[in-house]
# Entry
Amino acid sequence: MSKLSWDQTGEREYETGIEQVALFPMTNGAYGDGVAWNGVTALNITPSGAEPTPLYANNRKYLTLMSVEELGGTIEAYMYPDEFKACNGEAAITNGVYLGQQTRKTFGLVGKSIIGNDTELNAHGYKLHIIYGALASPSEQAHATVNESPEIDPMSWEFTTTPVEVNGYEPTSYVSIDSTKVDAEKLAALEAILYGTEEAEPRLPLPDEIATIMGNEAAAG
# Structure
């Protein structure tokens, strides 16, 4: 038997930041090559649904049904890559001339947040966030005059997702990978696929391929 303890040295973890965001626009039902998305200031992942509905019989609660869980979120950035224009409902009619209110492309995203703790601080590790089947909603574009207090016009997009199939599990739109809990060589192999190498373009593997790359060890939690 062991007694529970709290806030032990090295166990006071936290998560912060967002970096190395990559965009994967979808074309003809497949994710295309990834591109770097510079200037991302926030990637907010927002689950919804999974709401309980109680059912009653014989004057008591009989059981509880749960609604389907959805995944959405918001992206905040100073700018976006040209490859996101089609995802933002823009279509080029000639170089540098774009129409708005066009059909929006589905896309995938990858980003990396920092996992820190009380001994190694921000060097402790990181978490990969992989999003599938995202579709951006129209968003406000605010433009204010330049004045004595310089500011950059903010940009943000809300998105919803459509889950992809996963062998042996419910469909999902989101995969996270904790660098402090996985094999470093396997994670490096996955990141070489996600972010590309000198020999290969970056691409977005689906969850089943990620499971194959990372191995099939029993989950520790």
Q: What stands out?
A: The longest helix spans residues 184-195. The radius of gyration is 21 Å. The chain has a mean pLDDT of 92.
